[in-house]
Amino acid sequence: MIEHPEIPNTPADSVVPAATARRARVRRALLALPLVLALAAVGFDLARPTNGAGYRSAAAPTAAPGSGCVSPSAAASTNFADMSLSTFIGQHAGTRLAGNAPLYLSADQVRTLGDGVPAGASVDACADRITFTGAAVSFSVEAVPPVNPDMTFRIGALVNPTVVVQQGAQITVEFVNADTDQAHGWLVTTAQAPFAFRPGGATAFPGAQAAVIGDPVNGRQGARTITFTAGPAGQYEYICPMPGHAEMGMHGSFIVAP
Ligand SMILES: [Cu+2]
Asked: What is the CA(220)–ligand 1 centre distance, in A?
């Protein structure tokens, strides 16, 4: 369902519909903010450190990215009617939620986690796909690290890769908001691309959501860890739940193989 207002075609129509559309966007912003803060509240319950040191080291690469292939540069679109509204909400929530994450990582740790190949993963850079065949899966997801195109995730040095896991696998995700000025979260949803301003759908599996994290504190990036069981088999999508962010590019496929 696309919620964007129609763009008027004639000068005579342009003033009132534009004002109406602007009011509608502001109304949606006000409606969306409580959802963002509610997600953050859920995150406080789900979050816990990954080890005694407060963060996990990246696993040594077990598979080199495909020869000659690089992850597609899924540059964020700049052509959405609600882009400025999404940015406004993201920045406002980023400020409001600064300091809400249970873990904070240095720039070096962000680079290491973003570019490390997860243990047990098979990486196909040409297909932009990471496949896990084991019953225990662990990987890091970074929102908008400096090396990425804007409004994208980074997993195993790929941009918005398809992630394949086996049905029943126990999944551990360390989610890092590596952006400097916007709040981001991560969840697996039953909704399918393309996404509207508000993506709809439901969280695909209990616990498969990392609540929104705000801005960095003292230059260190917020992180939280979640665990869930993958299943039933099917094709899902992971997204950022912030209004407009999935629409602008923060999404990828999450496949549970039977
Ligand atoms: Cu986001």
From this structure: 18
